Amino acid sequence: MEIERETIPTAPRPDQGIFYGWWIGLAGTLILTISSGLGFYGHGVVLDPLCQAHGWSKGSVSSAVTLYFFTAGISGMIVGRRIDRFGPRRLLVLGSLMVGSALALLGHITALWQLYAVYLLMAVGWSATSLIPVSALLVNWFILKRGRVMSLVTCGLSIGGIVMVPLATFLIARWGLNLALPLLGAIYCAGIIPPALLVVKQKPSDVGQFPDGLPPQRRPADKTAGFLRYDRQMKIWTRAQALRTISFWAIVTSFFLAMICQVAYLVHQISFLSQSLGLAGAASAVSLTAAASIAGRLILGVFIDRLDKRHVTMGLFILQAAAILALALSNHNVVLYLGTFIFGLTMGSIIMTQSLITAECFGMISFGTVSGLAGMFVAAGSAIGPSIAGVIFDATRSYHVAFTLFAAVSLLAAAAILFAKPPATPPQQAKSTP
Fold this sequence. Notes:
This protein is mostly helical. It has a single domain (21-208, 229-419), classed as Growth Hormone, Chain: A (Up-down Bundle). Helices cover 74% and strands 0% of the residues. The longest helix has 58 residues, at 246-303. It starts with 20 loop residues before the first helix and ends in an 18-residue tail after the last helix.
């Protein structure tokens, strides 16, 4: 199945002005800033307040985070397919309303089952407002400079940590969960719904343009060889076809393992660091992590389009392992801040390279479908990591065992990613369901 379903203009509009993809990138940055700041980093902010307010163990609350990422992964498979068919605008609006409502409810729960129910609702909304819709937009709008643009836009993930974590920490400390969480829910909706309605367009042909603002005949030949060739990027991959490739399972395995470690540390970061640095110091370290993530993306973005992304990702996994191991073996303040900084350098780039490798292997037309399917499996790693860390902490009263384990798991991820070579073409089959 190699038909093309993208409608492309016969020529770019002479009066089109600035390439509209840059506005898409700006909107995507704002969306990721809000969704990551509250939907990703926010779990670490509310972990201890929820435990203290209700007398629950860290393992119990971490299990809600596990449910959250499992649900987001399953929802992401559906979201990705819907984005390929209908675009992300309505999903962004609906998802924002779901997350905003869930945050408002979270401030008024009284039982553990209510925590799980609220996290279930929030997870579905977050999957429709986070990396999958934004990555799908960028993959549609950019080919030649995809890595560089992705590195710039996904800085929003880290900006969310820098801005929203201190804000949420301050609001919860000042006003408590009952007042702070509904306000944060309103901020979530106000930050995502306007750009979704006013700016987002699914693909360049919607405004009479081409990816990168260049028609295929004007693309530099040396830049469009192999898997980045325009016609190859327009191939259609079904879920069944992707599942039959080694590349898909290499992506899934490596990022599944890496996200076990990454999300576990992020969720427990404030709780872990506050033991040595205090609450204010731990919050500052979270901001340092996010700032380092921005620096890592910007530095890597200069070179990423000229490098083998599998080798880059392998190096990031190894560096993540080193950072987590350093945190596990020392409680010296300098080492804690340094390890946090190194972890941050890898964190954002790892998330970025997953999208880039998926796009190189499976193209732009079916990116949402394949990325959502892979995300369902990878999210399982995000889901179980915090729970593993919470259970080990409850059993040992320490994070050292868990973090040492996570360092070893990161090294396994580094080995697995080397098998993610772009497949030659979608395997033929008589009938397949997208």
